[in-house]
Amino acid sequence: MRGEARSGWGPRPQAWGGAPQVDTRDRFLVRTYNTLFGAIVLFAAIEAGLFLSGLAAPIAGAMLGTSWLLVLGGFMVVSWLASHAARSATSTSVQLLALGGFVAAEALIFVPLLYLADHYAPGSIQSAGLVTILGFGGLTAVAFTTRKDFSFLGGLLRWGGILAVVLIAASLVFGFQLGTFFSVAMVGFAGAAILYDTSRILRDYPEDRFVAAALELFSSVALMFWYVLRLFMGSRRN
After folding, report:
1. Buried-most residue among 14, 47, 116, 187 (CB within 10 A)?
2. What is the mean pLDDT of residues 146-151?
């Protein structure tokens, strides 16, 4: 349900006696972005633990030596289960557990890319992280300041996502490389997803689903980081 009252931008309702009620939408937004920050910190902590413990190298070797179709397929299943649990579970603890599982899966699938970046393109991880933070901050500011409804991007994102999955699967099956143009297109796709997710968070998400909202944002931010990092790796290895 969209509308001025649900979006949080309209006049605040008045309780009996003229006193303003608590602005639950503002509280929802604070909890969403705090949870997103916590998910990013957890992701970084898992990666740091894997690399400092020496586990990153064997994990990267094992994943690079197996079929990426199986890896990506397993990740998509985990992603769907986590998103479904975060949206449908009534317990906040269960929602947070689903988010934690999703973050752990993301951290695992990032290991080979981060391992290669660390060895063959030093400094690219830090640069990609900074660009991703700036991009996310800028897109979030656009959504908050314009108050524009970006729900029209939903259909484009669905079709774009299907096309991207088909191209990735085809590249793995037939052995061709998805070059710089594809990475640039996917960065744009992730940016559109951030605008779409932020618009939905401002307008549509129920106030008790802040974990699901944070999960959606984290997924889009991770996607942007992945392809920004690929671009930096390509430029520094050439």
Report:
1. 187
2. 84
